[in-house]
Predict the 3D structure of the following.
Amino acid sequence: MAGVFDLVLERTLNAPLDLVWEAYTKPEHLKRWFAPRPYEITEIELDLKPGGIFRIRMVGPDNFDTGHGTPGCVLEVIDKQKLSWTSALGPGYRPNEMGEGCESFPMTAIVTFADAGDGKTAYKAVALHRNEADRETHEKMGFHDGWGTVAKQLEELARELAVNA
């Protein structure tokens, strides 16, 4: 499914599918792992329905701040299988004005989840870009390190949820 303008991250997370999905789709959990530490999510809005809002504010110790974050649009939700959203559109599928920094180019994320057996989850995140320049910009911003780090943090939180279940 990935094309030449896309970036892909695949991991097998050592946590069960139900809890990985819960960690990914509940704002109070998403806030805890979605930014690579020491960066953090300080604001989040998530409405898991097609046309719903996906907005975060990420801040970091180097004065990095996305501001209130350009609101993205949830495109597809298939329970415990798939979640996709885009920054190109806002809630209700309204076209977005692009911001600065990591919000300077439109991107669509398609994240899939599958039971990998033995309490593990196959996790795949694909970031779709409109052209090679946007893909390269995203890659140079640290896509693989950043998204890899947060996949590890997602796994850690899902495992924590298992302990506290």
User: Anything to note?
Assistant: The chain has four helices and seven strands. The radius of gyration is 15 Å. The beta strands are 7-13, 40-46, 53-59, 72-78, 82-86, 107-117, 120-129. The first strand starts at residue 7 and ends at 13.
